[in-house]
Write a structure and sequence with these properties.
Layout lengths: L8 E10 L2 E11 L4 E5 L6 H8 L7 E6 L2 E2 L4 H7 E4 L11 H11 L5 H11 L15 H12 L6 E5 L7 H16 L3 E6 L2 H7 L2 E6 L2 E6 L1 H5 L16 H9 L17 H4 L1
Parallel strand pairs: 3-8, 3-9, 6-7, 7-8
Antiparallel strand pairs: 1-2, 1-4, 4-5, 9-10
Length: 272
């Protein structure tokens, strides 16, 4: 008999209002351990509000939530020790170098061997070559990767990423995607908020769509696609997307390349 792991995050009936503005209207969510869970929604849907409540920065008006087995209302201290939160903008010190940022945070969190921790994270996020440079010289993708690396100091089992690729160029977005995937590969549970459909499609094990304060659908990508009628198969020439053109020209790797006939540039005559 296969044992099903208990959810790392459990949310039931969560509500939050600001006077007459009902932001969350009874949200239910389960996040499996070691998975990437994408909370997808447009601006103003309530994604950041939910993350703030789960990270104990904001008090809910109703409902319950457990994070890593701790109730967010009665065991806020234990919840904070279990999580790390990365907001929409990289919280790094531009005057310091990449290594100095990491060492500083490791010392503030009373970690042993802060220099070793910094070097390990620099290597893990492909920042070793730039470790001695001031962060002010880093690209947007490098800053975000450093920000995520800083959030991992102390090995929190859960990380909240609130729209981590906002404002980044296509190459930097893919760098961040690779970093997020690396988190899950190491067993970290990731709750990711995003308004980008391709980001959720690329990264998430499960996707929940938050609309007008409610979760209107929650499932894997395959389950969500099954909600629509079966696609009509047509053999047409596939043109590259602008993102694929951009990344090919600048030497980046786009994350979703395949070699089968359905995604290769072919003509109707060849298919016949």
């Amino acid at each position: 008999m296969t044992m099903v792991a208990e959810p790392t995050i459990t949310v039931r009936g969560l509500q939050k209002s600001y006077k007459d503005l009902h932001v969350l209207r009874g949200v239910d969510v389960d996040v499996a351990p070691g998975s990437i869970f994408a909370l997808l929604g447009s601006n103003g849907a309530g994604k950041t509000t939910l993350v703030k409540i789960l990270s104990t920065l904001l008090r809910a008006d109703g409902g319950t939530a457990d994070v890593n087995g701790f109730d967010i209302a009665t065991h806020a201290g234990e919840v904070r020790q279990s999580i790390s939160l990365t907001g929409q903008f990289a919280a790094v010190d531009e005057i310091l170098s990449g290594r100095e940022n990491l060492v500083l945070v490791a010392k503030l969190r009373h970690q042993r061997n802060p220099v070793q921790i910094a070097d390990d994270l620099l290597a893990r996020f492909s920042l070793t070559d730039a470790c001695a440079r001031k962060v002010s010289t880093y690209s947007g993708g490098m800053r975000r990767r450093l920000d995520i690396a800083m959030s991992l100091i102390g090995n929190p089992p859960i990380i909240f990423l609130d729209e981590p690729t906002t404002g980044l160029d296509p190459q930097a977005r893919i760098e961040v995607w690779q970093a997020v995937q690396e988190l899950a590969n190491h067993g970290t549970t990731v709750l990711l908020t995003t308004q980008y459909l391709d980001e959720a499609e690329q990264l998430a094990d499960r996707i929940a769509i938050l609309h007008e304060g409610r979760i209107i659908v929650d499932g894997s990508l395959a389950e969500l696609k099954a909600l629509l009628p079966p696609a009509t198969v047509e053999y047409v020439e596939k043109q590259p997307t602008l993102e694929e053109v951009f990344l090919t020209l600048v030497g980046g790797d786009h994350p979703n390349t395949t070699s089968d006939a359905s995604t290769s540039p072919t003509t109707r005559e060849e298919q016949r």
